[in-house]
Amino acid sequence: MTVFMDTTTGEVNTIDELLEDIILAESNINVYRVMAHNAKSKLMSLLKLEDGHKTGRIQGQKYKCKVEMPTKIMWDQQKLGKVYSIYPHGTVVDSLVKIANYKVDMREYKKFINTTGDKEFMDFKDFMLSANLGTVGTPKFTIEE
Asked: Is the separation of the CB atoms in 63 and 141 below 8 Å?
């Protein structure tokens, strides 16, 4: 049986004891993750954000919490690839869609979604809107005293 002695505390442990400590700690971490997830879900149901706002606050008796909503938007790469290949270059396509992973210039996109045009432009706009898969990620909670 192999034992380890902590030279600073003098504590002696076997390999099995150390592994049990890891198992217990990881089990507790998972329990606390689930507990935090459930509490965050309940708090999210209380949060009312006005249109366009990404940050909200929830106030309790002792604590308050700042909730920051995710802002990263996912895009359907196949649809953006199709947009890039179908619609003529030298138009709004070049300022809106970037090649790498296809990316969208969000500054231009925000202007673009509030623009109206002829049928061809509106078809392009509908296609771009359908490529937007929405924001991804989880809200960030900051508990303040």
From this structure: no
Tell me 65's DSSP state.
E
Query: Mind giving me the DSSP string for 94-119?
Result: HHHEETTTTEE-HHHHHHHTT----H
Give the angle 138-144-145 at the CA atoms, nearest 5°.
155
Residues forming a β-bridge with 64: 59, 144
Q: What is the pTM of this model?
A: 0.48
Residue 75's SS3 state is: strand
125 in Cβ contact with 58 (< 8 Å): no
pLDDT confidence of residue 35: 92
